[in-house]
Amino acid sequence: MQYSKSTDYALHALIHLAHSEHRNNIGIKELSAMLSVSESYLSKIMSKLRRDGIVRAVPGVKGGYELARPAGEITFLEVIQAIEGRQQMFECSNLNSQQHRLLAEVKDAEPIQNDSVHGECLVKKVMDGAEQHLHQYLQEHTIQSVLDTVAKNCNHLANKK
To answer: Residue 48's closest CA among 105, 97, 9, 89?
Structure first.
């Protein structure tokens, strides 16, 4: 499993917006220069974030983007889902195979047609559990939590001097 570069750019753009919160908004030109990505590519990413209510577009000559909510309320999971979509990561494609019947967890089921039993695939059950743990972890981390870690690391380095 690998997230797209769009997710990487989205997270970094949001961190930059949150870090620059003292300013009203940041233009696409400045954001794209900061991230070393084309304005048109970043505009598409920001449109997805805007559709999901993560950022707001500020119109006008001095317009740009700003966070729609506090950075502490924007989770990594919702950013990833805004960019990548909300589909499940794993789908059992062996539902009709003999192997699936052997690996199916069956609860009080009666065999139907040719001794096949349709139950939950145990491989899918493991993969779904892993996905739930990943989602929980990503839900616990926010744009603000990254900024807090950076501030803590900067303070730690300053105290070492």
So the answer is: 9
